[in-house]
Amino acid sequence: MSLWWAVIATCVGCYLLKYAGLAAPRKLLDHPGVRRFATVVPVALLAALIAVQSFGQGFDWPRTAGLGAAVVALLLRAPFLLVLVVAALVTGLLRITGM
């Protein structure tokens, strides 16, 4: 039964956190520091997620090469869908060849 209390507490906490964001005064949301924070945090969270998913289970050469190919495609300003395809192709080809 304690698991259900944890699930309920988490749901209530998430709801209250969401409500706090919606109930924040407009003056607070228009502050330049809050705007800068809201712009930078998603990028940092995405980078952390990529790092954990890429290297959290040990070093894997094909996965790392695919990530590198994705970075190169991004630097060349390729569309996001093409970046995903390039990363998948590089990773897949390296896995098929056994590298």
TrEMBL record:
Q: Which residues cross the membrane?
A: 6-25, 37-55, 67-94
Name under which the protein is recorded: AzlD domain-containing protein
Q: Which organism is it from?
A: Herbidospora solisilvae
Which keywords annotate this record?
Membrane, Transmembrane, Transmembrane helix
Q: Which InterPro entries match?
A: Brnchd-chn_aa_trnsp_AzlD (IPR008407)
